[in-house]
Amino acid sequence: MKIKTWLWQAPLGLIFVGAGLSMAIDAGSQKANGQPWFGYGTLALVLFNAGLCVFGGAIIKRVKDEMKG
Predict the structure, then answer these.
(1) Which domain of life is it from (predicted)?
(2) Residues 15-62: pLDDT tens digits?
């Protein structure tokens, strides 16, 4: 049995979103404490946006699967 693509993409996207958001909050804390934060914060935003893209792709795939029947 083949696992549908959206079934693993959706949780992976949510993990990326959560990790990126946590990292962004941590980068903000580093900035407030006068520590280097720019590179870490940029990586956090990249991870957050990648998670949104992966999750959105999973939704699109699920809708297409449902329309096929």
Answers:
(1) Bacteria
(2) 999 999 999 999 999 999 999 999 999 999 999 999 999 999 999 999
What string of DSSP letters covers 22-40?
HHHHHHHHHHHTT---HHH
What tokens appear for 35 in the block? 């520590």
Residues near 53 by beta carbon (within 8 Å), at least 6 away in sequence: 13
* Residues listed for the chain: 69
Count of domains observed in the chain: 1
Domain enclosing residue 37, as ranges? 5-68
Q: Which two tokens stand for residue 54?
A: 């992966």
